[in-house]
C-alpha cells in the first residue's frame, strides 16, 4: 500500500486556480471583508514569477490518484536602503485539515533558502495579533517582532485613498 505524500513545488500557471482558491480561504481565515478582495485569477496569471514568487504544497492521499493543492507561500523582493535585499512573505497558508504535517515549516523554509540564493539578507511578514497559533509557530523559528524592535508601524493606502494620491498633482514635477 502506498502512503500519503506531501510535495512542495514552484507554482506554475496550472496552479493559479488553486492559489486563487486558497487565497480566498486565507482571506476568510483572516476575517477580511469580501470587498477588499480585488485580486483576480487573471492578476495572478499575469504576475506569477514577474511580480511575485510562489510555492505550492500538494497532497496525494494513499488511496487516491488525485493530487490536491492544500497550501501555498507567496513572496516578493524588496530593497531597503539600510539592509539591502529583503524578501516580503505576503501569504503562507495551509488548509486546516493539513496543519501540523510539516507543510507550513516547509513553506517558510524553502522560500527562505530561495531568497538567500537571490542575495536576500532577511525575510519579513505580517501576522495578525489574534493569530496566536501562527505567532507561536514563528516564535519557534526565532522570528522576532520587528515592529517592536524597530519601533515602527506599518502604514498603507488602499483603493479610494490610493487613487486620490495617484490623481494628485505634486508641487514639484518629476523630470
Account of the 3D structure:
With 175 residues, the protein is of the alpha+beta class. The chain has 6 helices and 5 strands, in the order βααβββαβααα. It has helices spanning 16-29, 41-47, 103-117, 132-140, 146-149, 159-166; strands at 5-10, 53-60, 67-80, 84-94, 122-125. Strands 1-2-3-4-5 form a 5-stranded mixed beta sheet, sandwiched between helices. β2 (53-60) and β3 (67-80) form a beta hairpin. It is globular, with a radius of gyration of 18 Å. The model has no long low-confidence stretch (mean pLDDT 93).
Topology:
Layout: E1 5-10, H1 16-29, H2 41-47, E2 53-60, E3 67-80, E4 84-94, H3 103-117, E5 122-125, H4 132-140, H5 146-149, H6 159-166
Parallel strand pairs: 4-5
Antiparallel strand pairs: 1-2, 2-3, 3-4
Provide the descriptors you would attach to this structure in a database record.
single chain, 175 residues, alpha+beta, 5-stranded mixed β-sheet, 6 helices, globular
Uncertain spans: none
Name the shape in a single word. Answer: globular
- Report the radius of gyration as a whole number of Å: 18 Å
- The structural class is alpha+beta
Tell me about the biggest sheet?
5 strands, mixed
- Tally of DSSP helical segments: 6
Mean pLDDT: 93
Strand percentage lies at: 15-25%
- Total E-strand runs: 5
Q: Strand arrangement, largest sheet?
A: 1-2-3-4-5
Distance between the termini: 68 Å
Helix content: 25-40%
Order of helices and strands: EHHEEEHEHHH
Amino acid at each position: 500500500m502506498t502512503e500519503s505524500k506531501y510535495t512542495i513545488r514552484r507554482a506554475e500557471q496550472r496552479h493559479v486556480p488553486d492559489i486563487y482558491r486558497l487565497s480566498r480561504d486565507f482571506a476568510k481565515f483572516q476575517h477580511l471583508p469580501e470587498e477588499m478582495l480585488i485580486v483576480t485569477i487573471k492578476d495572478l496569471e499575469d504576475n506569477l514569477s514577474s511580480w511575485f514568487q510562489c510555492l505550492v504544497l500538494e497532497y496525494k492521499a494513499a488511496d487516491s490518484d488525485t493530487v490536491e493543492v492544500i497550501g501555498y507561500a507567496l513572496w516578493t523582493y524588496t530593497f531597503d536602503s539600510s539592509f539591502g535585499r529583503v524578501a516580503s512573505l505576503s501569504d503562507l497558508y495551509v488548509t486546516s485539515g493539513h496543519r501540523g504535517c510539516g507543510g507550513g515549516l516547509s513553506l517558510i523554509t524553502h522560500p527562505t533558502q530561495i531568497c538567500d540564493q537571490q542575495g536576500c539578507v532577511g525575510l519579513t511578514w505580517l501576522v495578525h495579533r489574534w493569530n496566536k497559533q501562527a505567532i507561536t509557530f514563528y516564535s519557534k523559528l526565532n522570528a522576532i517582532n520587528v515592529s517592536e524592535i524597530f519601533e515602527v508601524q506599518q502604514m498603507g493606502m488602499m483603493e479610494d485613498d490610493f487613487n486620490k494620491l495617484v490623481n494628485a498633482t505634486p508641487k514639484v514635477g518629476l523630470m
